[in-house]
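Milestone 3.1: sequence recovery, worked example.
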């Protein structure tokens, strides 16, 4: 756990250095554990903030939440991570003749999710004149996408423009859809537009 927390702080504060020194060839396990940790924190906070989002199964809300978190940890997070890494690798092939391996790509995507651990935390209504604005989620998703670009650029030793081009679809899958960044951004813009009119 201490290693995960150290990695979480390092990737948020010094991303270039972290991706340069913290991603090891052929060792996906730390990245996978990191992604599972982020997904569990995110979903646990989501359940705490919005209990209505807990799936209904036998045994009540606590048992339902525990089962949902187990499914996320054992199946959803690993599957989504590896699917996105496959997409990312396919997009890198035509852009880079020399690149790092799939294992490093898995780790980059995993560590780029760091900001999204707290994406489910809402902005308090007292700060937004009573409106519910998912602005923190939008910021977390945007920062995650930036970290993905930085990580791809550092680990695969390519330019930022090429990293942006290669990361556009994977960032959309992970940060736009899985962490609901697109929805958060759209809602935030809508609520702010309404508040200003």
């Amino acid at each position: 756990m201490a290693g995960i927390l150290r990695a979480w702080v390092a990737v948020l504060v010094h991303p270039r250095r972290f991706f340069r020194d913290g991603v090891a060839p052929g060792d996906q396990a730390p990245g996978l554990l990191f992604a599972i940790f982020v997904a569990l924190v995110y979903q646990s906070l989501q359940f705490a903030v919005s209990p209505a989002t807990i799936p209904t199964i036998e045994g009540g809300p606590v048992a339902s939440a525990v089962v949902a978190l187990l499914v996320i940890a054992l199946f959803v997070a690993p599957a989504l991570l590896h699917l996105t890494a496959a997409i990312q690798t396919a997009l890198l092939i035509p852009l880079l003749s020399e690149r790092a391996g799939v294992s490093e790509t898995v780790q980059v995507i995993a560590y780029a999710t760091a900001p999204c651990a707290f994406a489910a935390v809402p902005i308090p209504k007292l700060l937004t004149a009573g409106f519910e604005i998912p602005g923190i989620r939008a910021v977390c998703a945007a920062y995650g996408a930036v970290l993905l670009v930085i990580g791809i650029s550092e680990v695969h030793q390519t330019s930022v423009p090429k990293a942006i081009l290669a990361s556009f679809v994977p960032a959309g899958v992970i940060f736009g859809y899985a962490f609901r960044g697109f929805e958060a951004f759209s809602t935030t813009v809508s609520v702010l537009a309404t508040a200003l009119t």
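The chain has one domain: 2-196. The helical segments are 2-13, 15-22, 29-49, 60-92, 102-112, 135-155, 160-178, 181-196.
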